[in-house]
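Question (not urgent): is this output format expected?
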Amino acid sequence: MLEKKLWYKGLLLLSTAGLLAACGTGDNSDSEDTSGDTSEDTASNEIPEKPDTLKVWVNDEEAQLNAYDEITSNFTEEHGIEIEITPYSMLEQTEGMSLDAPSGQGPDLFFQPHDRMGDIHLQGLAAELELTDDQMDRLGEYNEEAVTAFSYEGAQYGIPAVVETYGLFINTDLVEEAPETIEDLTQTAADLTEGEQYGFMMNAADLYFTYPFITADGGYIFAQNEDGSYDTSDIGLNTPEAVESVESIQSWFEDGLMPQGTDLEVANSLFMDGQVGMIINGPWAIPDYETALGDSLMVAELPSKDGEQLTSFSGNKGWLVNYYTDNQYWATELALFMTNAESSETYYDVAGELPAHTAVEIEDELMAPIFAQTQNAHPMPNIPEMSQVWDPMADALQFIQQGDDVQEVLDEAVETIESEISLMGQ
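Got this back:
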């Protein structure tokens, strides 16, 4: 299983490098013979004339607007291009783009979560990036998985800005050290669980949170091709490896380590009341947890299985270039500037979201482990077919808590997923 997991991570890394290289070759295909020029002259000839202004739609949250006001001012100071920011709800931007962009009224850059890439691609809203060698070099400093999250069918469409995942929150009054392995986690949970006290809780009926455990032995949702695209005909949620992992989840309930029907609301309440030693959640929970537990709160990366750290699900947000813009190069430059190491530190300090740029140092002892976990996180598949996976798997995980046969339940879930996906093609 170790070899399979290493192969999978290597495949994603290779596909990312391949698609970026493919994008980069386009810049020089029509260039004239410049063998007599210096490399500096050649590079300058490839850079389009600067526009006077670039327009950007920023998600309409005050902290994000404040951060990008500061960051884009730095860009203007460095490059002499004015930036016009429009506050615009991230979740409403695609509708606005479909109305405004074709008529030339849209922005040069818009901001989106990566799991909308399928819809954005189908609507033709984002430009396929034609990255220069220099731009590719800079993008190589970003989280590999986050970069891949903004590719679609082998083409790169976006520059990642934010990576979000979850980690293991610990009440140190009950658990002194973070468990290093799943076995340690389970043993600690067993040692602490008694009466109304539990060692470990999570939302075990949600694929988002159970993904690290379902894939621990080699299960997967959709297989991936060499270019990073997904093969929806190959679903790995009922393979022998997935069944083995889900049987381990079922054992938590069979052994009384977690009560049936526990959702995140119940688990959160018990954790904040000091009745749970460990819980899986995201950084959004830190303010409430810190208020409840104070100095007794600790955060850790997820434990390992067979020497490999568990891989969480990640959600990524990033910048996309308007398909209809005349300023693709400079819009891409702005996206790279707004997400480089210096800008990402500013954004984190002001807006509090973890960056996709790996050179940023997070010193906060509660956020740093979450940032470290982002290096071991897989993006949620960004294809429309993923929407047909959530509900069948939620139902399956509920039945598994009740003691139903794992293989039968997962087979039925996969059949439902396959059926729903087939209907999407009609």
